[in-house]
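re: ur question from the group chat, yeah i did fold both. here u go
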Amino acid sequence: MAALNHPRVRKPWRASEARPRRWIGALGILVLVLVWQGTAVLVADASTLAPPMDVIRRFFEMLVHPFAGSTLGWHVIVSLGRFASGFSLAVVVGVPLGLTMSWFPRFEAVITPFFNFFRFIAPIAWVPFAILWFGTGFGGPVLIIFSGAFAPCVIGSYGGGKLTEVRLLEAARTVGAGNFKIITDVILPSAIPSIVAALRIAAGNAWQSLVGAELIVASSGVAYTMVRGQMNRTITVVMVGMIAIGIVGLIMEWLFRRLEVAVYRRFGSYAAL
């Protein structure tokens, strides 16, 4: 994380600069599809890799006809509901915790060992607890999503809080501001660019954690359709699930990048992780 004038920090995204990249990206996708088609026809077995047109056809069929109890669109909505719950919980808990740690050294000293222990536990390691505590209900995946998003939220807000200019903190003390006012009125606005950058990473971790959770402890959702497709040995369903997961992930990344640009324009600084 660094200020905009740092020589190694990315400049904000501009549409004019991205046009050549779009052509390169489109060419890359075309090459991937051609390689996929050639591999499916010449090398792979039909039960292990389906041609692109078969997968596209199944994708649109699943948008209309139910599979594993619901259409693909509804499975995506269910997954997004779980994602929103776990991600929001991580933000609500993690951001205030990181800001508080950045301001109170003693609190930081107490929390840091526990936090470091927690953040090195992979989200998938919480699956046994999720099953024991919640079964295949709503709470299990939310717990796993929370564990994936929590650490980036804390680290981003803590780092942003530590970057708050000393003169602003001294000015707040001079006018008699208390700890709560300093955190909410001085440290939080200063840390917002870093927090937003961290949220983009947290969202990616949360979405990946959701996929792992639904593969094991869910009875609905887009990743659950992949499990059912694997059980039925229907490779097109498995690949449709992967494509749907990737599309949603790309949309999330685009939205968070737009949010970063908006924050840059509002606060005049740009944080990059």
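okk and heres the other one u asked abt
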Amino acid sequence: MRGRGGPTGTMAKRNQRRRKPEPPGPSGFLVVDKPAGRTSHDVVDAARRWLGTRRVGHLGTLDPQATGVLPLAIRAATKLVPFIEGGQKGYDGTIVLGSETDTLDHEGVVLKRFGGALPERAEVEASLSGFIGDVQQIPPMYSAVKKGGIPLHRLARQGQEVERDPKWITISELEVLRFEAPEIDVRVLCSAGTYVRVLAADLGEKLGCGAHLGPLRRTRSGSFVLDEARSVDELAAAAKSGEIDSMLIPPVVVLGFPTFVVSGEQRVRLRNGGDLPSGDLHREKPGTRVSILGEAREFLAVGELRVDRRIWPLRVLPAEPG
């Protein structure tokens, strides 16, 4: 065993120096307009630098070539992600008829080209209508889905193709915005976990001409919409000027739950995991989620109204250093 002064002890001291306590800051959500060519993790790393915190997480990845809404949870708000993830996603994208690629999008290698006449708009719209509702999709090989603990995209880059289990997804809306063959601009409203690339490829197979996905822009992710999104350049400038914290959307706004304010003994009880009287919320239905706030309207916890008309804490946020 090495002593305290040995290499192991030196490394531990270095790690301690690197992990300096983070300065306090507000918690909330930041909506980034992700640019093409950057991964979702690239944006998370940038946000960590902008905000001076390691506590940053995203609410659902976007493919590197895709742009648009990428919501980030900041500081203690990362604890609230389970209460808001899984909402509907909205996309504006271009489907290109007449060719198939290995990645199912325009970044991939063309595997097959169709030599005949492309279908007319009426046939395309009729085929698209068959995808509305609950349908199954097979995840693409170039995706983050794992098989045996290994991401599929890693296997794909090794030239492997493995069997994937189909997944049920829901497409609520599917509209053609522009038809100029071979390009079709579509608007999609769908459940989380939907691959628009797969939708494009499945449409091409159904039409018999092949297809792949061109540019894709996410316009909605749950309650987060494109109008709220800020560009990477805008956020970097805001960080430099010290104004980025003001761009965070408060948790109480994002969650949209009824609010319940506590103070004094009730606040102490909450911190210890105790239940609370429901007060003015006693008429709400059992199972209603509640945002519990402090006297200064700071966010403290998410609670749930139970059948005994008491509010039970589901997630109490850690106290931020003062």
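fwiw on the second one: DSSP finds eight helices and 19 strands in the chain. The domain at 257-316 is CATH 2.30.130.10 (Archaeosine Trna-guanine Transglycosylase; Chain: A, domain 4). idk if thats what u expected
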